[in-house]
Fold:
Amino acid sequence: MEFPTWTASSNSAVRRHLTPEVFEQLKDTKTARGTTLKDIINSGVVNQDSSIGVYLGDEESYSAFSALINPIIEGYHQGYKVTDTHPADFDPSHLDAPNPDADAKYIISTRIRVARNLKGYGLTPTLTKEERTEVEKKVVGVLEGLGGDLTGKYYPLTGMDDATAQQLIDDHFLFKKGDRFLEAAGINREWPEGRGIFHNDNKTFLVWINEEDQLRIISMQKGGDMGAVFSRLATAVNELSDKLGFQYSSNLGYLSSCPTNLGTGMRASVHIRIPNASAHADFKKICDDNQIQARGIHGEHSESAGGVYDISNKRRLGQSEVQCVQDMHKGVVKLIELEKSLERQSVCRDHQAVHLLESSKVTCT
Structure:
């Protein structure tokens, strides 16, 4: 293996941290599953516009390639050291997040997801066809045994008919073959074998099997009742954990092929209509101060449409599940307060304009 050739514009985490010294140290390293340095960095080498550029093949990779991976982890999850202990708390009774928009004027929907991978298997880049199918069978067996609000049906991608596929597309549930970054990491192999979607009858609980991670577990509903969404997710995740077991490290939390998903593996988000707040000079500061991030509703790097934004927690590692949602809730409350304040000011300015036309003045406070 030779040291990678980087383009002048490449600024990925793997380029910054894969020094010639680290390369020499790791170039001949191989895990028990056969994961090598070349495997881990291939996506970043092929796609030099990557922001991170590494995908790990198994649990052992985190220790075997720590000279490269640890600086990437600490650089992304700023303020966290890999020697720290990651906290865990998925107890809904510990969450203080009353609906900040009971009148449903601003929050369109709430969605919380976590990434998980089963103990005893490699991460998705190294799963064999047989292992992937075995994971699918185990997970579906547990999902089909869920009751109450979680009762639902599994839809395998293999052999899916057009009508089913179209319904899942209409529901925004169907995931597609991974992008070029996942392709180069080996995650798309044998597509679509061993992959599928489970959702409950109410369409408020969804599980993607063998996408970027073995499991993406999602709870969602219209409006801003974050407590209900979190509680549903906690019930499902805790039951799946009890019956399947997930890869976990006391320092890194739940393991994922991508280091950005370590810790809780959680993304808690709302779609929220805030045209005034998002145009205000303090918008970015409020997001940064409350550890939340804003993006368009069509994914990372997308633009907002009609003042509607996707607002989510920024921190995953070093924060418990409850803390992740608490971060998001606190930030959303601040943004709604700002939006309401700006609306009042706008109404007041309109009133002033009318009264000025009538040769009267009002004072706004």
Observations:
- The two ends are 68 Å apart (CA to CA).
